[in-house]
What we know:
Elements: E1 13-15, E2 22-24, E3 29-30, E4 36-37
Amino acid sequence: MGHADYYKHGDFNAICDVCGFKFKRGELRLRWDGALVCDADWEPRHPQELIRVRGEQNRLKNARPEVTDVFIDNDDVQPEDL
């Protein structure tokens, strides 16, 4: 005879999704992942799974591309250019 081999008005037999033992439905609990489990197999959801991460806010204001350097020799500049 199993654990749930007795009559209880308004309750029915059910199987634990983890251990596979037979219980009355009123003794099983719905776990966060949707499994119907007994008290021995029930576990709360880990709090770290509920953390929401904020996006990074490292945008630069007025960002512009770097200007290419222009190199000149001494012969490129004439006195009239100054």
